[in-house]
Amino acid sequence: MTAKKYAVIGHPIEHSKSPLIHQAFAQQFNLSIVYEKVLAPLDGFMATVKRLQAEGFLGANVTVPFKFEAFDASQALSARAQAAGAVNTLSFQSSQLVGDNTDGCGLVNDILKHQHTALAGKKVLLLGAGGAAQGVMLPLLEQQPLQLTVANRSLDKAQAMADRFAADAERSRTVLQVHTFADLSQTYDVVINATSAGLTESKLAIPAVVFKPGMLAYDMMYGRETPFMQQARAAGAQVADGLGMLVEQAAEAFSLWHGVRPETAPVIQSFRQS
Ligand code: NDP
C-alpha cells in the first residue's frame, strides 16, 4: 500500500517540528505516512495547495502566515475554525477543501491533561488579541471559566475580539472583561500569554498582582524562557511553555485525518529531552 501523504505549509517552514510529531504519532499505530515541510511563496499559498492536491496529498497543516488565507480558501469550515477566523488544518476531501482549527483545543488539552489544571470556575487572563488569542477564545469559554479577562497592548483589538465572543461567554456564564495591561488589578488562577512579545524578548507591562504562588502561567511560545515566564516564575507560579499545545494541536489534526487518537505525553517528553 502506498503511504498517505500530508504536509505542513508555511513561510518560513524550516523550523517546523510538525513532521517529527506526526511521524512519532504514526509509529504508535504502525502507520506509514509521508509528511513534508512545504515552503509556499508569500503570494503562492493557493497554488501550493492545488499542487499538493494534484500530487495526491490528503491534507495539510497550515502555519504562519497563511492561517487566514487557508480560512478564506476553505469550502467548508468546522465550527471552531469559524469561531477562530483562521484555519490550521486542511483536509482535501474529494477535491473539496475542508478547514479546521485545532490550536485552541490543543491549548486546552495541554492545560487540562499535562498541566493538571482545570479551567471550569476559574479566573483566567488571556494576554493578546492576535490570531492565536482569537483561536483559543471559544475552546476556553467552552470550559466555563468563572471569568475571562482579555488584555492587549491595543485595547480596540481586545474589545473587538471580546465583542465577537460575547454570546459564547453568555452561554458559558463566564464574565468576559477587557483591559489594557496597565489596568489589570486582580490576581488570576491561570494567565495565558498569547502575545508574540517573547519573540523579541520584550517584557510585557503587566503588573505583578496578576500572579500568585501555585497559579498556572502559560506562554504559547516554546523553545526558550520568555520574560513573561521569568516574571511568573519569580512570583511563584507554575510555568508552562507552548510545546504541549503544539503537540496537542497536532494530535487533534492527526485524529481528524486518521481516525485514531495518539498518545501525546511520550512525544512531549521526547521533545523536551532533545
Ligand atoms: P499575531 O501577530 O496575530 O498577534 C500578536 C499579538 O502579540 C498581538 O496581540 C500584539 O498586540 C501582541 N504583541 C506583539 N508584540 C508585543 C509586545 N512587544 N508587547 C505587547 N504585546 C505585543 O501573532 P499570533 O497570535 O499568531 O501568535 C502569538 C504567539 O503565539 C506567537 O509567539 C506564536 O509563536 C504563538 N503560537 C503558539 C502555538 C503553539 O502551538 N504553541 C500556536 C499558535 C501561536 P497588538 O494587537 O497591540 O499589536
- Number of helices, counting only DSSP H or I runs of 4 residues or more: 11
CATH architecture of the largest domain: 3-Layer(aba) Sandwich
Assigned CATH class of the largest domain: Alpha Beta
What profile does the largest beta sheet have? 6 strands, mixed
- Low-pLDDT residue spans: none
Mean pLDDT: 96
Taking the alpha carbons of the first and last residues, their distance comes to 33 Å
* CATH topology group of the largest domain: Rossmann fold
Strand residue content: 15-25%
Choose one word for the global shape: globular
For the CA atoms, what is the radius of gyration?
Answer: 19 Å
Multimeric state: single chain
Description of the molecule:
By secondary structure, this protein is α/β, with parallel strands linked by helices. It folds into 2 domains: 4-101 and 245-273, Leucine Dehydrogenase, chain A, domain 1 (Rossmann fold, 3-Layer(aba) Sandwich); 104-241, NAD(P)-binding Rossmann-like Domain (Rossmann fold, 3-Layer(aba) Sandwich), CATH 3.40.50.720. It is 39% helix and 20% strand. The chain contains 11 helices and 12 strands. It has helices at 18-28, 45-54, 67-73, 79-84, 103-114, 131-142, 155-164, 166-172, 227-234, 243-258, 265-273, and strands at residues 4-10, 33-39, 59-62, 76-77, 89-93, 96-100, 123-127, 147-151, 175-179, 190-193, 216-219, 238-240. The strands form 2 sheets. Strands 2-1-3-5-6-4 form a 6-stranded mixed beta sheet, with helices on both faces. A 6-stranded parallel beta sheet has the order 9-8-7-10-11-12, sandwiched between helices. Strand 11 (216-219), helix 9 and strand 12 form a beta-alpha-beta unit. Helix 1 crosses helix 10 and helix 5 crosses helix 6. It is globular, with a radius of gyration of 19 Å. The two termini are 33 Å apart. The mean pLDDT is 96. NADPH dihydro-nicotinamide-adenine-dinucleotide phosphate binds next to helix 5, helix 6 and helix 10. NADPH dihydro-nicotinamide-adenine-dinucleotide phosphate (NDP) binds at residues 103, 106, 128-133, 152-154, 157, 194-199, 202, 204, 220-222, 242, 245-246, 249.
